[in-house]
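User: I'm curious whether this sequence folds into something compact or stays loose and floppy. Could you predict its structure so I can see for myself?
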Amino acid sequence: MTYGYLLAGVIVLLGLTTATMTWGGVDARFMPWWAIVRAAGQLTLISLALRGVLVHPALVAVALSVMFAAAVWTAGRRLHDLPGAATGVVVACGLGAGITLTIAFLLSMLQFDSRYVVALGGIVIGSTMTAGTLAGRNFRRAAIAQRPEIEGWLAIGASPSQSVADVGREAAHDALVPVIDQTRTTGLVTLPGAFVGALMGGASPVDAGRFQLVVLVTLITAQTITSVVLVRILGRSPVLPVSVARGSMNG
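Assistant: Here's the prediction. I'll summarize afterward.
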């Protein structure tokens, strides 16, 4: 594949995306273009940076730290109007990714090698960002919808955590639906990226399947920890969301 064909394909697909968003009346219809431009630039930089990381394993921690910082900053921006979200996202994503990756490599699910640490670490950290954003938004939406019930619990002496317990459970559950559905339909509806990537990299179907299974189970664990911890932290705030901020696609 030449870069000319790649560029043509990107332009056609993004053009179709913008046309569809325009037809559907969806705002920020040109943001996918900016997102792809950013992604291309960032992928170029990370490709160059990973050459050094894979040669010098000591830089793996630096690479993962940059990934984590970008993840929590992105999720934190999405939840900026939720009291306690900034700290909550850091703690929840840190625990979700840290505990999961530690167990995966301690139990030798994958070889403790720079390539696997960076690959699995990036996937897991990215998934905690997604889970944190979904859980936080679900929490905000449900808390606003159920405000009278929450205030009723507070009026009879319930603590903030007790008054939003149902909201938190619902928010965490809904945040986990995508990853659970993805896992349940793996091989039936889609061939996941990790599996396809391993195959294209020369791995046997068995080894590719093994790597994908590790990815799937770590995604479920990391996102579960992140979602539950985040809604617990958000639930401790004595301040309830007062309005639903329109989700921005910027950033």
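Summary: Confidence is low (pLDDT under 50) at residues 244-251. Residues 38 and 44 are 10 Å apart (CA to CA).
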